[in-house]
Write a structure and sequence with these properties.
The chain is α/β, with parallel strands linked by helices and 731 residues long. It is built from 19 helices and 32 strands. Helix content is 30%, strand content 23%. The chain is globular and about 80 Å long. The chain binds adenosine-5'-diphosphate and zinc ion (2 copies).
């Protein structure tokens, strides 16, 4: 029998399902999880059937019928739908929006679910570059490249090799020298990996792997804390092989920058071609294809960034979160979920194990170990021959400096280069200089739209605001006194790169930051040059800190660690320690002893001293004690209501109004309104209300009330507001 009413999740700001009349098409009984197209206001939207019913609050005659049923089978199974429902309620986010964010873009737009082919370019069997005119240099070189890859190359491989190759390929196709072929997406990686066998695991690795493998049929949660280079990835691979042997799938979540070609290659070499990759650099078709392979059960391993946590799996067996402390696992706008926390919940509901891995676990996860909720597995030593690096602090108040590089550091760079070592220099500030200063009157170039300084970018010859993206040409005169004596103050990665080029004229230097890697494929080629040893000095931001394995690096210099010591954000010290430890872990990964030099103006700072002399674990213990005394996470639970508006007073007034009508729940603290640490940003004034409680239950009761009242307030339409549950960034 036809259910007469369909309850549909529709992407819109209202936190509810919408009732529609079903049509003739809806005869099957497995309607839940299928997509429909429905009239909504004066638009047509794609929604997902969540429930069927025979009654509605509205009279049947007033309900609109759906326009079309889009699928013949559910695109989201009940396991994922239930997880998403739970997430919508936990994060107090509208269900329709939550459901939509779990779907690949093409499905959100109403396209068909089918595993589509991906276009590849192949040289025609008879093609010969010599038949092309000698001046057709680019055609010749691309044809030669294709001839070297008889299996053909995909778009992303060509992107990595050449710019504007598309017009060249078009010409070659016209001449009949190149063919476009469609291939299923899992064959995009045409370089057949040479399968590699596993190294023999050392005792600690073996113990960790055995513990996890003993729990493959239960919801045990593991925190695998292994120093960088201790062989966590080998442990993952070992347990994944066991999961594959049991006929089940593994979902691996990695940070945005952690999903490097190196990592994928390593998985492919060990496991063969059964891996679906889901990350933001894929185009929509590739993404849908990988998603389809996972949800059809064709991929045994799914490696993806944050949103891959929502991938449907037919035979889920294990979830792994690599670099579980990484902030990119948290979505920072719209539906603000934490992929790690959702993964823990998902594993619990599926009754499968989950492994959180990190060299520098989050305080949240360390605390869960103390509570007995997670089992701690340690890999205390580096695998193979590598020894831990020697760490030393360099006092920036003493001695000479060149553009932020102390004389001692420069000498050490010379020494390591001479011994054929590679050098990584780390500075978490891109651009040429963070400030433009007038030497005559002290004027500083500020962003018009933010409480922030403009950063000087030498490459693009612009001043740029890193908070709102505003840009302007570099002024030739001071805006206050018209003086021409404008000076860039301080250092960013561009400036360090320039200084290094002057100091080491014969050495290839690689800069790796968001500016240098904007072009598609640029990061891959930079990493390739770093990996092969062609680049000898790498200067970069936190993009360099994650996951990369550069066996030739013997010296790591951290140019400025003081930002993390004195910050308004209570997580700053934790992040600084994670970053230092991760960057330091890049040193001496192969046979040679590594060295880490940290420049600071506060060498006596107790936190730095603990980190350097006692290591990350001791440091984390000290931070936990501080957090406990201050009643901050993980000893309390937070939510942040952010409100912004174009008028300075509006956001604070709105929060005051809300507080005047909001019923209070016991054991919940409401702190605010307070201006955000950066009060003005992108032309808007920002205030926040911090909601905190020791227990989750009262916190969520309070948030429930809060959302209810905000949605009733007419003033809410005049400001922009958002609620962030378990916020990671406090601005
Ligand atoms: P992590 O993921 O903890 O940073 P990896 O798994 O990348 O560590 O291992 C670091 C390096 O040590 C890699 O080059 C890896 O091949 C090597 N390695 C890991 N385990 C072993 C082992 N048991 N025997 C020899 N080499 C190993
Ligand atoms: Zn001036
Ligand atoms: Zn700005």
């Amino acid at each position: 029998m036809n259910p007469s009413i369909l309850r549909i999740a529709i992407p819109c700001p209202l936190p509810k399902l919408f009732d529609y009349r079903s049509t003739e098409a809806c005869t099957a009984d497995n309607l839940i999880g299928r997509r429909v197209r429905v009239p909504f206001g004066n638009r047509k939207l794609v929604g997902v059937i969540m429930e069927t019913a025979t009654e509605s609050e509205l009279p049947l005659a007033r309900l609109k019928p759906i326009d079309a049923l889009l699928d013949t089978a559910p695109v989201l199974d009940t396991e994922i739908l239930d997880l998403l429902r739970w997430a919508a309620s936990y994060y107090h986010h509208p269900i329709g929006d939550v459901i939509a964010s779990a779907l690949p873009v093409l499905l959100r737009q109403g396209n068909e679910v089918q595993i589509q082919g991906i276009t590849h370019w192949q040289a025609a069997p008879t093609a010969d570059p010599e038949t092309l005119p000698t001046r057709a240099v680019r055609q010749r070189s691309i044809l030669t490249l294709l001839l070297q890859h008889p299996q053909g190359l995909g778009n992303s491989e060509l992107d990595a090799q050449s710019e504007n190759w598309k017009s060249v390929i078009r010409e070659l196709i016209k001449k009949g020298l190149v063919l476009a072929i469609e291939r299923p997406c899992w064959e995009t990686d045409t370089s057949e990996p040479a399968l590699r066998s596993a190294p023999e695991l050392n005792a600690a690795q073996q113990e960790a792997a055995e513990s996890i493998k003993a729990s493959l049929n239960e919801n045990e949660r593991f925190l695998l804390q292994g120093v960088t280079g201790s062989g966590k990835t080998e442990v993952y691979l070992d347990i994944i092989e066991a999961v594959i042997a049991a006929g089940r799938q593994t979902l691996v979540l990695v940070p945005e920058i952690g999903l490097t070609p190196q990592l994928v290659r390593r998985f492919r070499e060990r496991l063969g071609h059964c891996i679906a990759i889901l990350h933001s650099a894929l185009n929509d078709r590739e993404r849908l294809c990988a998603w389809g392979m996972a949800s059809a059960g064709e991929a045994q391993v799914i490696i993806g960034t944050r949103s891959a946590v929502f991938t449907p799996l037919t035979q889920p067996g294990l979830i792994i979160i690599d670099e579980e402390h990484d902030a990119s696992l948290k979505q920072q706008d719209g539906f603000r979920y934490h992929a790690r926390d959702l993964a823990v919940m998902r594993a619990h509901r599926l009754n499968i194990p989950i492994v959180l891995g990190s060299a520098t676990p989050s305080l949240e996860s360390l605390r869960r170990c103390e509570e007995g909720a997670y089992r701690l597995l340690r890999l205390p030593q580096r695998a193979g021959p590598a020894k831990p690096p020697r760490i030393e602090l360099l006092d920036l108040r003493r001695g000479q400096q060149t553009e932020g590089l102390s004389g001692f550091l420069i000498d050490e760079i010379h020494r390591h280069l001479k011994r054929d070592g590679q050098v990584i220099l780390f500075l978490n500030r891109r651009g040429f200089a963070p400030t433009l200063l007038c030497e005559d009157c002290g004027w500083i170039a500020h962003c018009q739209r933010c409480d922030a300084r403009m950063t000087w970018h030498a490459g693009s010859r612009l001043l740029r605001c890193h908070h709102c993206g505003a840009e302007q040409p570099i002024p030739s005169h001071c805006a206050e006194c018209d003086s021409e004596r404008l000076q860039p103050l301080g250092q960013g990665t561009e400036r360090i790169e320039q200084a290094l080029e002057e100091t080491f004229p014969d050495i290839r230097i690689e800069r790796i930051d968001r500016d240098s890697t904007r072009r598609k494929g640029a990061l891959e080629s930079s990493l390739e040059r770093a990996h092969s040893g062609e680049s000898r000095i790498l200067i970069g931001t936190q993009m360099l800190a994650k996951g990369h394995d550069f066996p030739g690096v013997t010296l790591v210099g951290i140019l400025d660690c003081d930002q993390g010591l004195f910050s308004a954000d209570f997580r700053a010290a934790e992040r600084m320690a994670q970053l230092i430890t991760q960057v330091a872990g890049r040193a001496g990964r192969a046979e040679r002893q590594g060295e880490v030099l940290i420049q600071t103006r506060h060498p006596d700072h107790p936190l730095l001293q603990t980190l350097i002399h006692s290591g990350f674990e001791a440091f984390a213990q000290e931070l936990l004690t501080e957090r406990k005394m201050a009643q901050l996470p993980p000893y309390a639970h937070l939510a942040l209501l952010r409100v912004e508006a174009q008028q300075r007073e509006a956001p604070g007034r709105f929060i005051d109004q809300l507080l005047s009508i909001l019923p209070r729940i016991d054991h919940v603290d409401l702190l605010g309104p307070v201006p955000a640490p950066m009060e003005k940003r992108a032309g808007r004034f920002r205030y926040q209300l911090l909601i905190s409680a020791q227990e989750r239950a009262p916190l969520h009761e309070q948030l429930h009330q809060l959302m209810h009242f905000i949605r009733e307030m007419p003033e809410a339409r005049k400001v922009r507001w958002s609620l962030d549950v378990d916020p990671v960034e406090m601005f």
